[in-house]
Design goal:
With 438 residues, this protein is an all-alpha fold. The chain contains 21 helices and 2 strands. The protein has a two-stranded antiparallel sheet with strand order 1-2. Strand 1 and strand 2 form a beta hairpin. Helix 5 packs antiparallel against helix 7 and helix 16 packs antiparallel against helix 17. The two termini are 18 Å apart.
Length: 438
């Protein structure tokens, strides 16, 4: 199998990682601008909630599977290029609006542009690396969410603070901008550079294919026929994503239970994204190498991450001191990073090349729908039910245990079905290979 050189393949991984980081940076930056946005555009909390959640997530989820199907039939490099240009244009455009509706539409466009990033990137990386090397490369790539979110909190917070001190500034082309507007413009512009760098990427030949052109329902039928193996994988990854809801409640948790300020909690959370995430990625890379000889190696990386993340996530909200809570939260972040790397790598190992992008889009849709839609409201409703806001730590602990323990058991007992799905694909690929010539 002809492949490009090792240095170039890793250059592509690092470039796609940088794009992934930027996508999360642009996605999270709005959360740092809530108060100035409310004051400037006269928004209600409900409207802010629409911008933070449905404006991005709903459209992002709705278009992911159709775009994944299209990517499996087209050039993923150019689709990524278009996605980057669209989302960066929407980010810059967010700094030029004056009312709620145009900003809402910009967030919709952001979701559209970013919907292609992860499925196309993981699919391309899978075609650049063989089955033995693939998990390590994808693990490095999956550091993107943690580095992007961490940069949004740390660097983005510093940028917002600086621009707020400077005040209104007149920019070439854009005119006079308020600090929140300038923030959107500043964080959106670098993306066009990355779009240009995508022109240096060669579209890899699709590997491990069973059919020339996949049908629009092909990935659904393939996954459905092997639902036990795929189900164990999706349940484990959904659990990992659902535990991200704890991060959304960190500010009220540390404020109500331990008296921390918003700035203190935000700094620690951002720092952990930026430090524990890479540590988890390094552990995932080591684990992928350790399990490389096993056909279910990437799935074992996912389970290892859950075994670290779930206990630490359940315990840190109920610790007697903030310091103990912070220490366990750091461990939880590491475990989440390991599991985050294991999920897509496992998906790539059981999905044929011609439907890999769509399969990853289906995977992302499941974990994005269940985690963000169910987790936050369940936690909020349960806290209201207790009648004591300070009980939020206990609520978070039970939330993690109720989701985490069954998910770990399903993932562990589903290992045999996952192995069967891997063997099924490898057998089909072997049969599809043309006979060797004498």
């Amino acid at each position: 199998m002809a492949r490009t050189g090792t240095v170039y393949r890793w250059y592509v991984v690092i470039l796609l990682l940088a794009v992934f980081i930027l996508s999360y940076f642009d996605r999270f930056i709005l959360s740092l601008l809530v108060e100035p946005l409310k004051a400037s555009l006269k928004l209600s909390d409900f409207e802010v909630g629409l911008l933070l959640g449905p404006a991005f997530s709903t459209f992002h989820v709705l278009v992911a599977i159709p775009l994944g199907w299209y990517a499996d039939r087209s050039n993923r490099k150019w689709l990524l290029f278009a996605g980057i240009v669209i989302w960066c244009s929407m980010t810059v455009g967010s700094g030029l609006v004056a009312t709620f509706l145009p900003l809402f539409l910009m967030r919709l466009g952001l979701g559209l542009g970013e919907a292609v990033v992860s499925p196309c990137s993981v699919s391309m990386i899978s075609d650049y690396f063989n089955r033995r090397e693939r998990a390590r490369a994808i693990s490095v790539y999956m550091a993107g969410p943690y580095l992007g979110a961490g940069l949004a909190f740390l660097v983005g917070g510093a940028v917002v603070g600086y621009l707020t001190k400077v005040g209104h500034v007149t920019w070439p082309i854009f005119g006079t901008l308020a600090p929140w507007q300038a923030t959107f413009v500043l964080v959106g512009i670098p993306g066009f550079l990355f779009a240009g760098l995508m022109l240096s990427v060669k579209e890899p030949k699709r590997q491990e294919t069973l059919a020339a052109r996949p049908s629009i329902t092909g990935a659904f039928r393939y996954i459905g026929a092997r639902w036990r193996g795929f189900g164990a994988l999706i349940v484990g990854s959904t659990c990992n994503f659902a535990l991200s809801a704890l991060t959304l409640w960190n500010v009220p948790l540390f404020s109500r239970v331990w008296g921390w300020s918003v700035m203190e909690t935000g700094f620690v959370t951002g720092l952990f994204y930026f430090t524990a995430g890479p540590i988890g990625t390094a552990l995932a890379v080591w684990s992928a190498r350790h399990f490389a000889g096993r056909i279910d190696g990437s799935m074992r990386v996912l389970i290892l991450g859950l075994l670290i993340c779930v206990p630490a996530s359940a315990l840190y909200p109920v610790m007697p001191t903030a310091e103990m809570g912070v220490a366990l939260m750091f461990i939880a972040f590491i475990g989440k990073s390991v599991a985050t790397a294991g999920g897509p790598a496992s998906m790539a190992q059981v999905t044929p090349g011609e439907m890999r992008t769509q399969g990853l889009a289906i995977f992302n849709t499941f974990i994005s729908l269940i985690g963000p839609l169910l987790g936050p409201p369940i936690i909020g409703a349960a806290t209201d039910f207790t009648g004591d806001p300070k009980k939020i730590g206990v609520v978070l602990c039970f939330y993690v245990l109720l989701i985490g323990i069954p998910s770990i058991l399903i993932a562990i007992f589903g290992l045999k079905h996952y192995r069967a799905a891997v063997l099924d694909l490898e057998s089909a690929l072997a049969e599809a290979q043309p006979p060797a010539r004498d």
